[in-house]
Amino acid sequence: MFNPRNDKAKSDNEKGYEALRVLLAAEIERIRNAQKRKIDAHYDELTPPKKICYDEMFVASDKTDVVLIVEGKKLNVNKSFLSFHSDYFSTLFSANFKEGQMKEIEIKEVSYEDFGLLLSTIYPMQVFPNDETAEKLLELADRFLMPSAKHLAEHHLLNQSKLENEKMMMLGDRYGIKSILERSIRQTDSAEKMKKLKKSPEYAKLSLETVARLFERFVDIV
């Protein structure tokens, strides 16, 4: 039998549950934001000065067992530690290569400052990337097969970077960082932004696959 009081009570309960759900979702979002601010603050506190003295950071000690020479300058490192972070150096230091038996190894086609930056991302006095160094760090992390350095650059780009969306998209596309690429494509959500992207120098550097995805997105937008 139809009972308006029961229906009203049911409706009131549903409204109460919905209000509770909204409050709970808001509280979860508040906690997430608070945690992110805490992480970002910690990240900022650890960010060192821009000018780093790699001569002091990579000085010889009882823990180093090989010297890497870049542009005539020496960086003292530990083979096992570097091999753990880089498949490139793990292979280079192996018995299959003559470098594995050498005390000094020359690293070519990279500047001393850039290579020092790369190594410093895994050392105790860790150097964090910024918008000026992130792209170079990604390039070298790719070349020297150092995923930890790549992840560090990715974290910066996702959480601290002020780079334009067009630049972010190119970096995500070029270095296979799905999180950055997907976010950049999502943020290209208007015809104006699409036109801005196409006029940017980064557009010509995008892969055909990403350009095709952008075309599909443009069709959806218009």
TrEMBL record:
SMART domains: BTB (SM00225)
InterPro entries xrefs: BTB/POZ_dom (IPR000210), SKP1/BTB/POZ_sf (IPR011333)
SUPFAM superfamilies in the record: POZ domain (SSF54695)
Protein origin, superkingdom: Eukaryota
BTB domain mapped to chain residues: 64-131
Signal peptide: none
UniProt xrefs under Pfam families: BTB (PF00651)
Name the UniProt record assigns to this protein: BTB domain-containing protein
